[in-house]
Amino acid sequence: MALKATIYKAELSIADMDRNYYETHQLTLARHPSETDERMMVRLVAFAIHANEALTFTKGLFDVEEPDLWHKDLTGAIELSIEVGQPDEKVILKACGRSEHVYVYSYAATSHIWWKALANKVERCKNLTVVDLDAAATEQLGKMAQRTMQFQCTIQDGQIWLTDGTETVEITREVLKAER
């Protein structure tokens, strides 16, 4: 018998001073049985970084044909594709072929090893941005996961702060590859 997703609800208030974006989103996250709390929370942070009314969570781990998040235009074309973790080159190349912009958010302590092995294989992807999130910070985020969550996210000068009112986590980003 197949295991079902665990449903998480999150109210996410975003104050992104870098983009002048201020909004509160009511989100439903389906956590795949094989997904960790940390990975799910990184998906939430990726949403906060790129938030807009058209950005949605996809089937993700349930469907290998879809990224973790995407933003489609009114014609159904994928404007933004977001992958979380350490996807292989085939996944990245396929996303770059289907999407206008592709972001990969890696977050493990081994991300630099993964990137060193992959960098030359995806160098030709002009629409790809790869960002490494601080592993210690994402580990803290995983501990903040609850079935019902309320967060405030502040983004300023490239820095990200996520708080649940009790704990605050500062998430630093290192761009490993920028879109050109």
What is the number of helices?
A: 4
Supply the number of structural domains: 1
CATH class: Alpha Beta
Overall shape: globular
CATH topology: Restriction endonuclease-like alpha-beta roll fold
Structural class category: alpha/beta
Low-confidence stretches: none
What's the alpha carbon Rg, rounded to whole Å?
16 Å
Question: CATH superfamily assignment?
Answer: Restriction endonuclease-like alpha-beta roll domain
- Summarize the biggest pleated sheet: 6 strands, mixed
Whole-Å distance between the termini?
46 Å
CATH architecture annotation name: Roll
Strand order of the largest sheet: 3-4-5-6-7-11
**Helix share bin:** 10-25%
Beta-strand content bin: 35-45%
Q: Assembly state here? A: single chain
Give the SSE order as H and E letters.
EEHEEEHEHEHEEEE
Organism: Duganella margarita
InterPro entries: Restrct_endonuc-II-like, YaeQ, YaeQ_sf
Protein name: YaeQ family protein
Pfam families: YaeQ
Any overview of this molecule?
This is YaeQ family protein. It holds the Pfam family YaeQ. This protein has 180 residues and is α/β, with parallel strands linked by helices. The chain has one domain: Restriction endonuclease-like alpha-beta roll domain (Restriction endonuclease-like alpha-beta roll fold, Roll), CATH 3.10.640. Helices cover 23% and strands 41% of the residues. The chain is built from 4 helices and 11 strands, in the order ββαβββαβαβαββββ. It has a 6-stranded mixed beta sheet. A 5-stranded mixed beta sheet has the order 2-1-8-9-10. α1 packs across α4. The longest helix is centred in the N-terminal third of the chain and has 14 residues. The chain is globular. The N and C termini lie far apart (46 Å). 29% of the residues are buried. The mean pLDDT is 94.
